[in-house]
Amino acid sequence: MLEILNDIVVENNTRLVLFVLDGLGDLPHPDYGYKTPLEVAKKENILKLLRKSALGMAYPVGLGITVGSGPGHTALFGFDPIKYQIKRGILEVIGMDMEVQKNSIAIRGNWATVKREGNKFIVLDRRAGRLPTEENKKNLSKIQSILKDIEDKFNVIIQIKSGMEHRLALTITPKDENEKLIVDVFTNDPQKEGKEVINFPPSSAIGSILEEINSRVFELLKNERANYILFRGITDVPHLPNFEQVYKVKPLALAQYPMYLGIAKLFGFNTFKIDNYENITDYFANYDFIFIHYKYTDMAGEDGNFESKVEHIEKADKIVEKIMKSDPDVLVITGDHSTPCIYKSHGFQPTPYMIYSKRGDVFGINNDFNERECFKGELGIFPLVNNIQLMLAYGRRLQKFGA
């Protein structure tokens, strides 16, 4: 499809807004009259748009497939989430607001407790007793001089940052921007206590750096409960299409959580971290494609908190009122996946999808915006990857294909 779009996308001055309520979709809940949060929530501003909107249900990857935020947003941006995979290491790094370069290696890690038996390290606790976050930060402060020595030895730049409890993330970036490390190792984690740490082969440049880190860390911290690092999700920065170049728009991403800004940045968006949504339209100037991310619906779903999800949908409805004051030509309201409250996790169900067209060139056949109405909508059940071409079409940014 991208090959076709390259030939038919045109520039104009229409403004397109993508408002993503993370984990929006849900299932009928037995404790709430077998309704979903979208069915219960008051949505006066969204309902005002129904007569100029088309509805449907969209699946991020395929029917029956549960997805994470990476593939969900890749699909939302119009790219095949199977072809363009953003792996966990890079997601962890950008989710912690760490800078990456095109030749960086991204790695997620755990502090662990190990003991040495000869030349072997045996894992006693893969999470070092779920190390408190403050202790994690203190350990990282202790090893900074070690990392500086390793940077000089291997001619790389090492960033490391603590996450919650025992978690951490790091990047390794060659100082020579033309040099790229080959990802030929993936983990040293045996996945079980009592097992030997997996040794990285000496032929691996990345493995050699990580072995050096742990050798020095263990010598310094061997008497501490967190005395070793288990590395996982070792990945390079994926080569992804540039959103602006492909779709001929000037894109902006607005979010409160760094991971979603990071995903957008990988696709070439300009990004801005917001503290709240009060003056959301103040950021719209100079951009004609605005992606706005709203996390709280997903958080409520993962907590299994139906009433909280209703509340946050209603708060999102107030944001829609603010968005509409900017007079967008196209507004999409959808999710990146479903997070049913009865699951307390992501679900495989498709996500509700609504596209508003200022021109009103839709059938406008629905009476509400919720899962049941979206299943009856004119768009039917369709791949979420079609989102962008729908937005471009309703925004008069696609010319005729073929003679």
Distance between the termini: 18 Å
Instruction: Order the strands across the largest sheet as they lie in space.
Output: 9-8-10-1-11-12-2-13
Structural class: alpha/beta
Instruction: Determine the mean pLDDT.
Output: 95
Helical stretch count? Answer: 14
CATH architecture of the largest domain: 3-Layer(aba) Sandwich
The percent range for helix content is: 25-40%
Name of the CATH class of the largest domain: Alpha Beta
Overall morphology: globular
**How many beta strands in the DSSP annotation?**
13
Give the helices and strands as they follow along the chain.
Answer: HEHHEHHEEHHEEHEHEHEEHHEEHEH
List low-pLDDT spans. none
The CATH topology of the largest domain is given as Alkaline Phosphatase, subunit A
In terms of DSSP E residues, the strand content is 15-25%
What is the makeup of the main sheet?
8 strands, mixed
Radius of gyration from the CA trace?
A: 23 Å
Write out the CATH superfamily name of the largest domain: Alkaline Phosphatase, subunit A
Number of self-contained structural domains? 2
Explain what you see.
With 403 residues, this protein is an alpha/beta fold. It has 2 domains: 2-85 and 240-394, Alkaline Phosphatase, subunit A (3-Layer(aba) Sandwich); 94-236, Alpha-Beta Plaits. Helices cover 31% and strands 22% of the residues. It has helices spanning 2-8, 37-40, 44-47, 69-76, 88-95, 133-142, 144-154, 205-221, 243-247, 258-266, 296-303, 306-324, 371-375, 387-394, and strands at 16-21, 53-59, 105-117, 120-125, 156-162, 167-174, 228-236, 251-255, 270-273, 289-294, 330-334, 351-357, 380-383. The strands form 2 sheets. An 8-stranded mixed β-sheet has the order 9-8-10-1-11-12-2-13, sandwiched between helices. Strands 3, 4, 5, 6 and 7 form a 5-stranded antiparallel β-sheet that branches. The model has no long low-confidence stretch (mean pLDDT 95).
